[in-house]
Amino acid sequence: MIDHVSIGVSDLVRSARFYELALAPLGLTRLIERPATVGFGKAYPEFWINLRSAMARVSAETGSHLCFRAKSTAEVDAFHAAAITAGGVSDGAPGLRPHDRVRYYAAFVLDPDGNRIEAVTFPAE
Protein backbone atom coordinates (compact mmCIF):
# COMPACT_ATOMS: atom_id res chain seq x y z
CA MET A 1 0.00 0.00 0.00
CA ILE A 2 2.74 2.50 0.90
CA ASP A 3 5.88 2.66 -1.23
CA HIS A 4 8.04 4.84 1.01
CA VAL A 5 7.89 7.27 3.92
CA SER A 6 10.00 10.29 4.86
CA ILE A 7 10.40 12.36 7.99
CA GLY A 8 12.11 15.63 8.76
CA VAL A 9 15.22 15.87 10.93
CA SER A 10 17.10 18.92 12.18
CA ASP A 11 20.62 17.43 11.91
CA LEU A 12 21.13 15.05 8.99
CA VAL A 13 24.49 13.66 10.14
CA ARG A 14 23.27 12.93 13.67
CA SER A 15 20.01 11.41 12.49
CA ALA A 16 21.62 9.34 9.73
CA ARG A 17 23.92 7.79 12.31
CA PHE A 18 21.01 7.21 14.71
CA TYR A 19 18.88 5.48 12.07
CA GLU A 20 21.81 3.51 10.70
CA LEU A 21 22.33 1.96 14.15
CA ALA A 22 18.65 1.69 15.15
CA LEU A 23 17.50 0.07 11.90
CA ALA A 24 20.42 -2.36 11.49
CA PRO A 25 18.78 -5.07 13.67
CA LEU A 26 15.77 -4.94 11.30
CA GLY A 27 17.96 -5.47 8.22
CA LEU A 28 17.66 -1.92 6.87
CA THR A 29 20.81 -0.11 5.75
CA ARG A 30 21.76 3.29 4.40
CA LEU A 31 21.33 2.98 0.63
CA ILE A 32 21.35 6.53 -0.74
CA GLU A 33 22.99 9.72 0.51
CA ARG A 34 22.34 13.14 -0.95
CA PRO A 35 23.15 16.59 0.43
CA ALA A 36 19.80 16.97 2.25
CA THR A 37 18.42 13.43 2.42
CA VAL A 38 19.38 9.85 3.27
CA GLY A 39 17.44 6.76 2.19
CA PHE A 40 17.29 3.48 4.13
CA GLY A 41 15.92 0.12 3.13
CA LYS A 42 16.64 -3.49 2.24
CA ALA A 43 16.55 -3.53 -1.58
CA TYR A 44 15.49 0.07 -2.25
CA PRO A 45 15.01 3.16 -0.05
CA GLU A 46 11.69 2.68 1.75
CA PHE A 47 12.45 5.18 4.52
CA TRP A 48 13.96 8.63 4.05
CA ILE A 49 15.17 11.30 6.44
CA ASN A 50 15.16 14.84 5.07
CA LEU A 51 17.11 17.78 6.46
CA ARG A 52 14.89 20.51 7.87
CA SER A 53 17.47 22.75 9.59
CA ALA A 54 14.92 25.09 11.16
CA MET A 55 12.72 22.25 12.39
CA ALA A 56 11.67 22.42 16.04
CA ARG A 57 11.61 19.26 18.14
CA VAL A 58 8.52 17.18 17.34
CA SER A 59 5.90 17.59 20.04
CA ALA A 60 4.57 14.42 21.68
CA GLU A 61 1.08 15.79 21.13
CA THR A 62 1.34 15.38 17.33
CA GLY A 63 0.24 11.77 17.69
CA SER A 64 2.33 10.66 14.73
CA HIS A 65 4.66 7.71 14.66
CA LEU A 66 6.35 5.39 12.20
CA CYS A 67 6.41 1.61 12.59
CA PHE A 68 8.90 -0.87 11.14
CA ARG A 69 8.12 -4.60 10.84
CA ALA A 70 10.47 -6.98 12.64
CA LYS A 71 10.80 -10.72 11.96
CA SER A 72 10.95 -11.70 15.65
CA THR A 73 10.74 -10.51 19.23
CA ALA A 74 14.54 -10.68 19.32
CA GLU A 75 14.71 -8.15 16.46
CA VAL A 76 12.32 -5.83 18.33
CA ASP A 77 14.51 -6.12 21.44
CA ALA A 78 17.66 -5.44 19.40
CA PHE A 79 16.05 -2.44 17.67
CA HIS A 80 15.10 -0.90 21.03
CA ALA A 81 18.56 -1.49 22.53
CA ALA A 82 20.34 -0.14 19.44
CA ALA A 83 18.12 2.94 19.25
CA ILE A 84 18.71 3.76 22.92
CA THR A 85 22.47 3.26 22.52
CA ALA A 86 22.38 5.55 19.46
CA GLY A 87 20.80 8.41 21.43
CA GLY A 88 17.09 7.66 21.29
CA VAL A 89 14.75 7.79 24.28
CA SER A 90 12.55 4.84 25.19
CA ASP A 91 8.86 5.55 24.75
CA GLY A 92 7.73 1.99 25.49
CA ALA A 93 10.02 -0.91 26.37
CA PRO A 94 9.84 -4.10 24.30
CA GLY A 95 6.89 -6.23 25.30
CA LEU A 96 3.70 -7.99 24.40
CA ARG A 97 0.77 -5.69 23.74
CA PRO A 98 -2.46 -7.66 23.67
CA HIS A 99 -5.49 -5.93 22.18
CA ASP A 100 -9.00 -7.11 21.33
CA ARG A 101 -8.26 -7.62 17.63
CA VAL A 102 -4.56 -8.49 17.47
CA ARG A 103 -1.72 -9.56 19.78
CA TYR A 104 1.64 -8.03 18.99
CA TYR A 105 5.11 -7.45 20.44
CA ALA A 106 6.56 -3.97 20.04
CA ALA A 107 8.95 -1.32 21.30
CA PHE A 108 8.79 2.46 20.91
CA VAL A 109 11.59 5.03 20.79
CA LEU A 110 11.82 8.78 20.26
CA ASP A 111 14.56 9.72 17.80
CA PRO A 112 16.83 12.74 18.48
CA ASP A 113 14.15 15.08 17.03
CA GLY A 114 11.26 13.54 18.94
CA ASN A 115 9.87 11.46 16.05
CA ARG A 116 8.15 8.37 17.53
CA ILE A 117 9.36 5.16 15.93
CA GLU A 118 8.29 1.60 16.62
CA ALA A 119 9.36 -1.93 15.75
CA VAL A 120 6.64 -4.60 15.78
CA THR A 121 6.22 -8.32 15.24
CA PHE A 122 3.28 -10.66 15.59
CA PRO A 123 4.35 -13.76 17.52
CA ALA A 124 2.46 -17.00 16.90
CA GLU A 125 1.83 -17.61 20.59
UniProtKB/TrEMBL annotation:
Organism in which the protein naturally occurs: Bradyrhizobium ontarionense
Stated name of the protein: VOC family protein
Ranges where the VOC domain occurs: 1-122
Any Pfam family: Glyoxalase
Database matches in Gene3D superfamilies: 2,3-Dihydroxybiphenyl 1,2-Dioxygenase, domain 1
Domain of life, per lineage: Bacteria
InterPro entries linked: Glyas_Bleomycin-R_OHBP_Dase, Glyas_Fos-R_dOase_dom, VOC_core
